[in-house]
Each structure stands twice: as structure tokens, then as C-alpha cells.
């Protein structure tokens, strides 16, 4: 079996939320949806707190100051 892989890393450029998921958009147009259930602080956060985020490390991670939460995007891709 052949598997196509892409070793080029791509940083996140946008972030949005649905009721149950975080959707991350990368600079190469890929998108990743991750369940909020994986992150109790985010799952229980208000809409206002969820939307108070910023990228760290040029899009390598996401930080929520008011929730004291950081997510390294690389860890979501493993």
C-alpha cells in the first residue's frame, strides 16, 4: 500500500467554533475539526471566553488568557 504524506508544516490562520467542535483552518486551506469534549476548560466556557483567543508562535498554538488554556496544534495532528 502506498501512502501519500506531506512533511510540509502549515500554521493555523483561523479558528471558529460550533456547538461541539473547534474548527482550525491552516494557511494551505486544510481544515481540522476537534471535539470540544477533549478540552474541559473549553467545553465549559462561555461563548465570550471561547472567542477570546489568540494564536501563539505564528499559528503553532492557541491561547485563551481568561481560561488559562493553551493548545499546541501539532499535538492535534498526531
TrEMBL record:
Source lineage: Bacteria, Pseudomonadati, Bacteroidota, Flavobacteriia, Flavobacteriales
Protein name: DUF2442 domain-containing protein
The organism of origin for this protein: Aequorivita echinoideorum
Amino acid at each position: 500500500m502506498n501512502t501519500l504524506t506531506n512533511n510540509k508544516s502549515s500554521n493555523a490562520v483561523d479558528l471558529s467554533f460550533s456547538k461541539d467542535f473547534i474548527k482550525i483552518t491552516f494557511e494551505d486551506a486544510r481544515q481540522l475539526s476537534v471535539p470540544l469534549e477533549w478540552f474541559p476548560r473549553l467545553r465549559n466556557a462561555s461563548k465570550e471566553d471561547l472567542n477570546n483567543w489568540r494564536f501563539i508562535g505564528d499559528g503553532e498554538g492557541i491561547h485563551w488568557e481568561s481560561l488559562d488554556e493553551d493548545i499546541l496544534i501539532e499535538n492535534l495532528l498526531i
